[in-house]
Specification:
The structure is a homodimer. With about 300 residues, chain A is an alpha+beta fold. Chain A contains 13 helices and nine strands. Chain A has helices at about 1-10, 10-25, 25-30, 30-65, 70-75, 100-110, 125-135, 155-180, 180-185, 200, 225-245, 260-265, 295-300; strands spanning about 90, 150-155, 205-210, 215, 220-225, 250, 270-280, 285-290, 300. In chain A, helix 7 (about 125-135) packs across helix 11. The two termini of chain A are about 55 Å apart. The relative contact order of chain A is 0.13. Chains A and B meet through helix 1, helix 2, helix 4, strand 1 and helix 6 of A and helix 1, helix 2, helix 4, strand 1 and helix 6 of B.
């Protein structure tokens, strides 16, 4: 209030001019009508939401009210059908009993993994190996078994060059403008910058897209719940598979490059780039940051 | 425009009343002063942003302009310091060369993994095994090596019961109100509902929290870039480790339960629940949905 009063005395001329300008503005004259329009729109929205909620509640009550859920599925006379086929569940066949050293051996395998930024451009692992690793990634769990991922494997040099051009162009802007000073400083110990030779040196690039939605077998839109978490879990499994195969990798999340890379690879608009992975062998004289990982006591709490 | 005119003729009395009301409102009288205030605030914000950008650009130029980055690090006279210590990089020692069957064998291991909802409450795997699996998860890569994760392992029955109470209470509301009809229907083939016996039957619950930020060794705030993707990747590695150890698991993302579970486990406010994992052995007569996974040709595209 005192701020307003202060400026009213300081700029009296300016104020009277602006008042004249504002009183001539049509928007302010029609306030009552605009307010009414907004109220009507809100009312329509409320009615729509209420209807949706009724529909939802009734389908839930049906599901709860029957002992034999399988019978209820066939009887349900609803326009809403599940994306997955409804089949009786099958016995679970556990693949392995406790492997007493399995967890420890797996940890020993994974602790050797490092993010590698210098790849050997002359040695290319067979594509079969990469395919097996992607098969493994495809075993990831996903929200309502939607499997919302696409793995684009780039091995042609020309395509890798186009990827590199897009990423380096955007990263130049990221480092100089989009990322704040603390972020750029925090990356300094890792020696990363906007120049990315690994994008053309690595024999394979794997661009992992999350699918925000999909299509059911009968052409309806399939909603993909938790698609980002699911696809990231799949990426974690992929990293393990590559490590098991003896390959090196680098996980990157190129800021603002998604749309251009999606267009380059001609992916549909429901796919969004999540992770860009470089895969291959490390260069002979490859160096990595002198990092330590947190100990168990820093990452685990027992209850 | 015609919409406004239409309502003006329909509600003439209402409109005149509202006009009287609006003209008596102090907010509208002081428009010029408020506008000026906003302009001043915007100008201050712009100047601040410009200063930050200058700072950032200069630190980037410094980084680019020096051949010997290590020297530049010590000379830099800036208030902004990286979260990690700046040390020379070290030679990378590859743990394994290509293991020709590694990728295939890893896929064979992982294809046996299924989400299990019926756990054997009487057999408890040793805690050492779970710890090794969490050690493996802790090898995950993370944005700027921030390691933004906390794994809370619950084995006490009383705590598991409290977790179950919180989750079942929220899930009751989720299924009946928060989740839309299509979502509830899509979950029907998986036979999931708001009753969660596995939360007390499973010998271990692992609640995975992402840390939105952390603290450096000298007490400054440490920003955690891409903390959700990083923690989800760690969760993917954890699933592989559990599978390698021969244990069963279930990944869940309990909607709206995060704050209550965080308070239950007395975790700080910078930690947000991402995934709740049940871990143990499957019940003898355990059944799982009759699901198929997408084939390689549906999840992989080659370029």
């Amino acid at each position: 209030m005192c701020f307003v009063a202060y400026r009213s005395t300081v700029f009296p001329q300016l104020q009277s001019k602006m008042e004249a300008l504002l009183s001539s503005c049509k928007l302010f004259k029609h306030w009552p009508s605009i307010l009414l329009g907004l109220l009507v729109a809100l009312a329509i929205k409320y009615i729509k939401t209420y209807r949706k909620r009724r529909l939802r509640t009734s389908s839930w009550e049906q599901l709860e009210g029957t002992e034999n859920v399988a019978v209820e599925f066939t009887l349900a006379d609803s326009a809403i059908q599940p994306a997955l086929e409804e089949k009786p569940h099958v016995p679970f066949v556990p693949g392995h009993n406790l492997n007493p050293n399995g967890g420890r051996r797996f940890y020993e395998l994974m602790r050797g993994r490092r993010s590698v930024r210098a790849f050997n451009a002359n040695i290319k692992p067979p594509i079969d190996v990469v395919e097996d690793c992607i098969r493994a990634a495809g075993t990831a769990p996903s929200g309502a078994h939607t499997e919302p991922w696409t793995f684009c494997v780039v091995e042609q040099l020309a395509v890798k060059q186009s990827v590199r051009e897009i990423v380096e162009h955007e990263e130049q802007i990221n480092y100089s403008t989009r990322m704040h000073a603390q972020w750029v400083t925090d990356l300094r110990p890792l020696h990363t910058n906007a120049v990315k030779p690994y994008l053309t040196d690595a024999p394979y690039l794997i661009l992992i897209f999350k699918q925000t939605h999909g299509t059911t077998t009968d052409g309806r839109k399939k909603l993909h719940y938790y698609n980002e978490i699911s696809t990231s879990i799949a990426a974690g499994i992929l990293l393990c598979a590559l490590q098991a195969a003896g390959l090196c990798s680098l996980v990157t999340t190129p800021l603002n490059c998604g749309p251009a890379l999606r267009r380059l690879l001609e992916r549909p608009t429901n796919e969004k780039l999540l992770i860009l992975l470089a895969v291959g062998y490390a260069e002979d004289n490859c160096k990595v940051p002198d990092l330590e990982r947190k100990g168990l006591q820093s990452i685990m709490v027992k209850y």
